Amino acid sequence: MGPMLTVARRELAGYFATPVAYVFIVIFLVLSGALTFTLGGFFNRGQADLQPFFNFVPWLFLFLVPALTMRLWAEERRLGTIELLLTLPLTQWQAVWGKFLAAWAFCAVALALTFPLWVTINALGNPDNGVVLAGYLGCLMVAGAYLAVGAALSAATKNQVIAFVLAVAACFLFAAAGSPIVTDFLSTRVPALAELARAVSVTERFNSFARGVVAARDVVFFASFIGFWLFLNAVVLDHRKAD
Questions:
Q1: Which of 65, 241, 45 is nearest to 155 (CA)?
Q2: Suppose 233 and one of 67, 100, 152, 199 were both cysteines; which one would form an S-S bond, judging by CB atoms 3.0 to 4.6 Å apart?
Q3: Domain count, the chain
Q4: Which residue from 217, 237, 230 is spatially nearest to 83, judged by alpha carbons?
Q5: Least confident interval from 59-68, 71-80, 211-220
Q6: For the stretch 109-125, what's the b/e string if a residue is b when 16 or more beta carbons lie within 10 angstroms of its beta carbon?
Q7: Stretch 168-194: mean pLDDT, rounded?
Q8: Which residue blocks in 17-91 are alpha helix, DSSP H?
Q9: Which residue segment(s) compose the domain that 123 sits in?
Q10: Cα angle 73, 75, 79; round to 5
Q11: Three-class SS of residue 153?
Q12: pTM as predicted
């Protein structure tokens, strides 16, 4: 755990040593607030809850999270420091998990800074704060899923722009897989694929959290999803190291 946490602290400090962290947080807070109160119809709904906010978070993360992950390994490979990192007295898995946990902690900070929304709904009414907490947990799970995908794809290239584009495309597939447009289209042609699309959809699982339902199957899904992509991350690093 020690070396892994050391990597995590190093990476987290690296975010705040550059404008990337502050730009990410400002954009996330501005967009989440604007979308919640305008397109989300926060005041027109007549309900004191954060459902409008939760509706937009997976789609905001779709673009913002790859902006974090594109440099995780691509920058290390471009600068040639990845070899140095992997020769330190730590295992490859510790490096992979350390970088992932740093990015995940950063997303948690960004989510925590949306607390004025929570304060607002409690000032306007009597919301079910248990549902709100479940929704935030779901947001963190979605962030972790996107981060794991982005980290694996970042390890596959030296180019940060390519890593960003690949991560956005891959995350979009998992976000849109459970949408009615996709599932209805597949249901009329290949029903088995429609069920598969629902099964791997990140937003489909997130919707349960947003409704206040923390089901074991959804937690297991996110844990397995993250674990699978981090495993691919390690496999890609092994392959690149062999090259």
A1: 241
A2: 152
A3: 1
A4: 237
A5: 71-80
A6: ebbeebeebbebbeeee
A7: 83
A8: 19-37, 51-69, 74-79, 82-86
A9: 2-242
A10: 120
A11: helix
A12: 0.90
**From CA 35, how far away is CA 50, in angstroms rounded?**
12
Q: Which residue has the tokens 């459970």?
A: 178
> What 3-state class would DSSP assign to 141?
helix
- Mean pLDDT of all residues in 159-163: 88
With tokens 């972790």, the residue in question is: 144
Mean pLDDT comparison of 87-91, 120-124, 176-180, highest-scoring range? 120-124
CA distance to 61, 179, 181, per residue, from 185 (Å): 26, 10, 6
Amino acid code (one letter) for 151: A
**What is the C-alpha end-to-end distance of the chain, expressed in Å?**
29
CA 239 to each of CA 39, 49, 153: distance values in angstroms, whole numbers, following the listed order: 45, 47, 13
Structure tokens, 240: 């690149």
Provide the residue count of the chain. 243
